[in-house]
Predict the structure.
Amino acid sequence: MSDPGQRVLIFDTTLRDGEQAPGASMNEKEKLEIALALERLGVDVIEAGFPVSSPGDFQSVRKVAKTIRNSIVCGLARSIKQDIDAAAEAVKTARHGRIHVFLATSKIHLEHKFKKTPEQILQMAVDAVKYARDKMDDIEFSPEDATRSDKNFLYRILEAVIKAGARTVNIPDTVGYTIPALYGQLIADIKEHVPNIHQAIISVHCHDDLGMGVANSLAAIKNGARQVECTINGIGERAGNASMEEIVMALATRRDYYGCCTGIQTKEICRVSRLVSKATGFVVPPNKAIVGANAFRHEAGIHQDGMLKERSTYEIMRPEDVGFVGTGLVLGKHSGRHAFLERLKHLGVELKPAQLDKAFEIFKRLADKKKQIFDEDLLTIAEDEVKTVKDTWSLVSLKTTSGTNLKPRVELSLKSKGKIYKTRSTGDGPVDALYKAIDAVTQMKGELLEYSIQSVTRGKDAIGEVTAKVKIGGKKVIAHGASTDILEASAKAYLNAINKVLSQP
Ligand code: MN
């Protein structure tokens, strides 16, 4: 076995910076599910949230801290006592807890945000780190907007916070302004000019405003950074954060150049990517590196020919190494229960016996309508069964009529607590009519904020998956529904939203 190289710690901030992405808001259950998936993935640190920002955030950080055993669970705090107290309280039950304290150090932020002198800022940072260190051993400090800060001031503040007890110093490119050569040089300069830097791990945190988040992170690693902050699918504030899967696979694929390794179980990557995409409602673009649907597809004849002769002609990574699910035909009408179970197992789906029975029944019904069942179809079925919310309302039957010069009409029957409820409705379009009917039966008034439909695989008989963002009684939720009938999928997505709201405390 060759030398795996120096270890780079993976700090995931999907649940904190990722959740700051406009429109991404996850509930506590979804956050916990993602945290568990991240732990399985092997991330070193999970930044679970910003506890002082809201009671909901505080609760979910606390829940993650209580549940996760193998990864460090981290809470973010500004350099003020109230924030540090909240972060310490939220992560105190973690087996490995960390407080991440930050304070802006750039001239722009100092003058406009704080109206403080550099000396005052330096003192604030030292006081905050000392205060946090009294509560917890593992403290990380971030000089916010580091890449636009005066270098000499940055060296001084880093030296001071390390002396005060920070074990990790993170150099954020908060606004996505830097470029690889300059960022790499900044890390090299910090190593040279901060006398006690060997007592801390240098971390990096990059944003993708100029499309260089991953490139900047890698340049920093090449220059000695040993922790990288990133998110699944690169989600995050504005254009997003550096994408974890890209950094991890770049280090693995080009170990010859970087000489570094991570503790990531790369076979779990696609699974976590799907989970985050579902929870946030952010669809992964087909051309996205590593996790996009086309990331491992070869279309050009010359490429296909080469692939058939020898995979390495056009393949630098093996799709199975990142748990990539292709659309190879797997099952059909005549496939039995055994083949179905085996395939699910292969895809890493674990269902309880009762869920399995139901999933198999859905599979059989689907196989009647659809000739070829692909892996993606199976995952959609299975994910439907392991939904985290209880079905207070479920669809019994649906009849819709619409067409040119016809007023769309819907006949609907829903079930709740063993009782059947029926209604009819009309609307401007079939979805409008349908959602009005559901509102009438459930006595909920939903506002549809976003609606999108995607086909799970190719072909006219493909499953359609509807993602809907719905606001009900002040709460916003992201919900899904899947069916070969797109109106049925629309109904299921809307009911999923209602069920999610009803299951919230
Ligand atoms: Mn950030």
